[in-house]
Amino acid sequence: MTEIAGKKRALTFQELLFTLQRFWADRGCVLQQPYDVEVGAGTMSPDTFLRVLGPKPVRIAYAQPSRRPADGRYGENPNRLFRHTQLQVILKPPPVRIQEMYLESLVAIGIDLKEHDIKFEEDNWEWPVGGAWGVGWQVMLDGLEITQFTYFQQCGGMDLDPICGEITYGLERIAGFLQDVDSIYDIVWAVEPDTGRKVTYGEMRLAEEEQFSAYSFDYADVGRLWEHLNSYEAECLGLLSQVKDFGEMDVLKLKRFPVLGAYELALKCSHLFNLLDARGAISVTERVGVMARIRTLVVGVAKAYAAQGERVSELAS
Amino acid sequence: MADFLFEIGLEEVPARMIAGAQAELEQRVVKILERERLMRSGAGTKSFATPRRLAVWVEGVAEQQEDVAEELVGPSVKVAYKDGVATPAAVAFAKKAGVEVAALKTITNAKGEYLAATLVKAGREAAEVIAAEMPKELAGIYWAKNMYWRAGRPERFVRPVRWMVAMLGEKTVPVEFGGYVAGSVTYGHRVLFGEKEIVLKAPGDYEDALLGGFVIADVEVRRQRIRKALDKVTRAGDLKGSGLRWREDHELVDKLTQLTEWPSVLMGGFEKEYLALPEEVLVTVMRDHQNYFAVEDKSGKLAPHFLAVLNTEADEAGVAVIRHGNERVLRARFNDARFFWEFDQRVPLNERCMLLENVTFQKDLGSYAVKTGKVRKAAAALAGRVVERGLEVDVLALDHAARLAKADLTAELVKEFTELQGVVGGLYARAQGFPAAVGDAIYDQYKPESMEDGVPRTTEGALLAIADKADTIAGMFGLGLEPTGSKDPFALRRAANGIVKILAETKVTLPLKLDEIAEMGSYDAAVVAKMRGFFAERLEFYLKEARGQAYDVVKAALAAGASDVRDAVARAEAVTAVRGSDDFVAVSSAFKRMKNILSQAREKGISAARGVDAALLTEPTERALADRSAELADRVYTLRAEKSYRAALEEIATLRPQVDAFFEAVMVMAPDEAVRANRLALLEKVLGDFSGIADFSEIVIAG
């Protein structure tokens, strides 16, 4: 880390995370832990994908490791990762000053706005497999995209009401910027206070990048990945097939019906698809078909979740 | 009278939508004020826009509508009174007019004496009218993409509204929209001025007050400020006197004008080693991914610098920090590009062709390997045609290029920078030792991508581009996927526009007709017919949009042939050149008359004779027309054959005295059947002889 004389020391990776979490906790967000199923983006965690549905207000924040097997570079590229960490903030409905609050969060992590160039450039977000999209911006800080800011509009093909503000910080990017390092692996993750020893991002994660790139590009057994995909899909479909019986379930049975379990199964399928894709095992012709299969699961879960919520509140009133 | 100001404050509006919305808001405000008689015609208006606001100022708006008197006419006096007593008709009219029967007056008009009443519609206050009308207009603004933003509300808008200003003179107008009521408070630059309020005293304060808040509201002023700063910073950065210049890029200047409220410019640099990457790659990274301007030296070669437009103004230390950040990002982007470039070279284009089996072009049309096969065939057929007609083509290079054209779709660099497809293939072909003719054709295959874009540089490139585009159109049409209305998901209009533009603008004339190209890509007669119509429509578009020809001239020219593009352009231009002359106008309207007479005769089942019989030409004027036009026809045919269209048209215009005299003295629909049929035949012949350049009856004559 470069320490410019007279300047405040840049935050370590974990201090950056602490500061942002504290910032949003102070503004009413419940801090959730990362979701423990593989996802390709923070948006796919049920804390976003399912909580944005329905009328209930939500303020939640969590750091979410996101895995994109095809983006792996065996740890050789200083800017690309197979797994990176997003800080996801969900505000439903979005407060009027949401943009100003976001800018204040940048100040909180040591960015003097007057010393930098900030632009909100149109960048709309879309996850077709989840029937989800929103309009928004990429926030550019001195030419670097540090945040995706989205007004979530639809999820599972359903209009959201109220809509939801979603702020996704790319933590590695921001840490690299704050610490002014050219490689992600040089980011200081933490400093031991007694010895002053710096623990770097590379020390913590490089082995993972190397091995998981190799796994997803070279080792993963294609036949078995397909088997997993088929079997998770079958189980998810089995659950979804029972959604039509919601009307006959008593409230207890309905509340306990594992829509959340079905979602995990759908996410597993999505990740397996990404692995197969990285492995080069999905031909372009197949691609559309497999994506449609996963879309059936993901959108099916969103609809089931909404139906379950509505039916439970009907029965309760 | 007072000036009117309206401003709507929004979270950052997408840059691409601002100019359209600015114009639309101005037009909608003017529409209200004119319709409501609050604005005098010719009053000054001005509109403003930044990423966070759209505003309109109108000079001298009336604060109150004038009362309007309206005369209502009722029943005739005869009907209204029987024996001096008001009839039910009179009573009903008085009720309708809202007055007593006694208050009705009597007027005399052309038909006689009638009851009447004068109604006075009281003028409303401007503020009231504006407050009532404005919300509808705001809700009606068109946005390419919009959002729901308030809970429980069905309304959609481009981005959340944050404030509104509406002032008529010093008073605010309570326009309500999106949960806000307009007032006199606006806001400045997000960072440089913060969330402090700017209170406006009067509409005229707007620009100055915003300047104080670090916002340049006038788009043009902002654009000029950016251009000047680009010049100045480039000059200042040119320490070794190598004549640095920023590369002109109107679109990027526009975009940055719409991305900033208080722009400034800085110059950054990058390591010279990156200049080893192709210029196209470097420029795409800078322009498309970072919004940076490229910098070149005196010889036009890319220099290791870039220009970034900031939405802020920093002191020297601040600029150093921002420059450092921008350079860091660019270096990372260049590193990625270099990584892909080197990675891609491991698999040569020849091998990549095989991989195209796995890349779908369209699900019903198969892979890009299939498409490649079809394009090769079409390109060879087109080449055969033009070679027959004496144009030189490197047939081998063309086939090579067609075979390799899509190979770069499998390259990582293209996956990362899709806008570089074709370009990357061309560069790889060159790097892998293929002849320049092959590389250039691959490089140019997608050209022109727009009306402004250039056409392929070589004949081989032009033929490949035409074959590829025609194949796509034929394939999609074959599946019934024609563009409809504003929907053109496969960009088929752009493809057809491209073909037209290539035929019209290549350096060496390509002896190919649109009809032939339509036949090339398909054997299905129905598809060929649809393609012909589609091409003719695109040629019409090209003549109007790219060549600025009037719609009637275009129609006239196309009626005489819509397949030979260069010829149609030349004929349309010739018509435009002569259309102003009195003689030409007279001849055109005479031709229109002839056409009408013939079609009316046809409708009545009266037919013309097979040919003109000189013996039956009884009147001297018709003999004169026949003689003179026969004489002219020879000359016009010769001029047409030489493509001296303007001269030919000028000749035709000399027919005026004879046509004028003919219509003055001769009745075409003569009672004698033989004379009549002969006269109709004469008109048919005149029209036939002189409509080969354009159908003049389509020309709209002013006045």
Automatic annotation (TrEMBL), chain A:
> Which Pfam family, giving just one, matches this sequence?
tRNA-synt_2e
Subcellular location per UniProt equals: Cytoplasm
Record's catalysed reaction(s): tRNA(Gly) + glycine + ATP = glycyl-tRNA(Gly) + AMP + diphosphate
Biological processes, Gene Ontology terms: glycyl-tRNA aminoacylation
Question: Protein biosynthesis: is it a keyword of this entry?
Answer: yes
Enzyme Commission number(s) of this protein? 6.1.1.14
The membrane-spanning stretches of this chain are none
What keywords are assigned to this protein?
Aminoacyl-tRNA synthetase, ATP-binding, Cytoplasm, Ligase, Nucleotide-binding, Protein biosynthesis
- Example of a GO cellular component annotation carried by this entry: cytosol
What is a single molecular function from GO for this protein?
glycine-tRNA ligase activity
Tell me how this protein assembles. Tetramer of two alpha and two beta subunits.
Q: Which HAMAP family match?
A: Gly_tRNA_synth_alpha
For this chain, the family text in UniProt reads:
Belongs to the class-II aminoacyl-tRNA synthetase family.
User: This protein is called what?
Assistant: Glycine--tRNA ligase alpha subunit
UniProtKB/TrEMBL annotation, chain B:
Q: Which Pfam families match?
A: DALR_1 (PF05746), tRNA_synt_2f (PF02092)
GO BP terms in the entry: arginyl-tRNA aminoacylation; glycyl-tRNA aminoacylation
The name this protein carries in UniProt is: Glycine--tRNA ligase beta subunit
Q: NCBIfam families of this UniProt entry?
A: glyS
* EC number(s) stated in the UniProt entry for this protein: 6.1.1.14
The cellular component terms of Gene Ontology attached to this UniProt record, alphabetical and capped at eight, are: cytosol
**Species of the source:** Tunturiibacter gelidiferens
Molecular function as annotated in GO: arginine-tRNA ligase activity; ATP binding; glycine-tRNA ligase activity
Compartments where found: Cytoplasm
Subunit (UniProt): Tetramer of two alpha and two beta subunits.
Q: Say which enzyme class the record assigns.
A: ligase
| Catalytic activity entry | tRNA(Gly) + glycine + ATP = glycyl-tRNA(Gly) + AMP + diphosphate
Q: Which gene name belongs to this protein?
A: glyS
